[in-house]
Amino acid sequence: MNDNLKQSILAAVAPDLARIEQALADNLNPYLERVREIAGHILFCGGKRIRPLLMILSARICGYDRPDAATFAVLFEYLHTATLLHDDLVDEATMRRGKRAANLIWGNSAAVLTGDYLLARSSSLAVKTGKMEILDILARITEDMSQGEIHQLDKKGDPELSEEEYFHIIRNKTAVLMQGACLSGAILADASEDRKRALAVYGLNLGMAFQMADDLLDYVSDSEQLGKTVGADLREGKFTLPLIVSLARAGREDADTIKRIMRDREFSDEDFKFLNRLLERYGGIDYTRDRAAAHIASAKNALDSFGPSPVGETMAMLADYTLVRNS
Asked: Across the strands, what pairs with 99?
C-alpha cells in the first residue's frame, strides 16, 4: 500500500519537485566552490523536499500557482539542511542520508560555517518574497528549533524524560518548521486568516506525526532504508516516545534492563534486539504509532474547510504517507 501511495504522491508533485531541484541549484550561489561542495554533499543526496513542497502546495490551495513559488519555497530546504549540518556535529553522527557526515569529511568548522551560509541564504529568499511575515516566521522557527535542540541536549541520557517534555521538544525541533512552511505558503497567497490558521494546524500536526514516525524508524527500520545507523538516537542518548512509554509501563526487572541498555552507548546488536522486543511487549511502538495517527487525522481534518480539490487530496496523501514510510 505504501508503495502505491508514494507513487501517487510522486505523480501528483513531479513538476513541483523538478522546480524545487532547479531552484535549489540556482539559488545556492556561493562565490566559494568549497561552500557549494559541502552544502551539496547533503543538499543534493536524496532529501524528500517535503518542506518546500508543503509551502508550494499550501500556496496553491489558497490560489497562488506561480512558478516563483519554488524559488521562495527552497528557503525552507536551505534552513532544514543548515540544521542537519549543525545537528550532525552536535550529535557526533557518522552518517546522513546514507553518506558520511559532512564534518567528518571537511571538518567541524567548515561544516558549521556552511550551515551558517545556508541560514543566511534562507533569510535572503524570505526577504525576496516581499512579505515581512515570512521573514518573521523564519526568525521564530530558528529560535524555536535552536531551543528545541538545546532542550534535547539538556535531557540527553536522562531516563526520567517525560512524555510531555518529549512532545515539547519535537514540536520545537521539527513541527514548527513544517508549520512555518505551510503558513508561509498561505501568506504568499494573501490568504484569509481562517485559511492561514487551517494550514498552520495542518503543518504542525503533520510535523508532530513526522517526527514520531522518524523515531519509530530508529527501531523498526534498517540502516540501508534509513540512511543512517539504526539505533543512532539511542546511542546518542536521545530517548524517544517508544522508549519513554515502555519504560513507564515495564516491571522492575525489565525497567532495569531498559535503563541498562539506555546507559550503554556501546550496546550490542543482541541488546538492541532484546530492547525492541520489550518495546513491543509494553506497547511503546504501538502507542507511538497511535499518537502519530491521531496527529495525521487532525492534519487532514484541517484541510476540510478548503473543500475537495486535487491539491487537497495530495496534501492528505502526504499526511497518510508520513506514517507508513520506511525511510
From this structure: 96
Q: Are 86 and 110 in contact (CB under 8 A)?
A: no
- Give me the helix-helix angle, 50-61 and 68-91, nearest 10°: 150
312: left (phi over 0), alpha (psi -120 to 50) or beta: alpha
How far is residue 242's CA from residue 284's CA, in Å, rounded to a whole number? 4
When pLDDT is cut at 50, 70 and 90, the band that residue 222 belongs to is low
Distance CA 304, CA 301 (A): 5
- Please say if the pLDDT value at position 210 is more than 50: yes
| pTM reported for the whole predicted model | 0.94
* CA-based radius of gyration for the chain: 20
pLDDT digits (tens, 9 = 90+) for 93-148: 888 877 899 999 999 999 999 999 999 999 999 999 999 999 999 999 999 999 99
Residue 48 backbone class (left: φ over 0; alpha: ψ -120 to 50; beta: rest): alpha
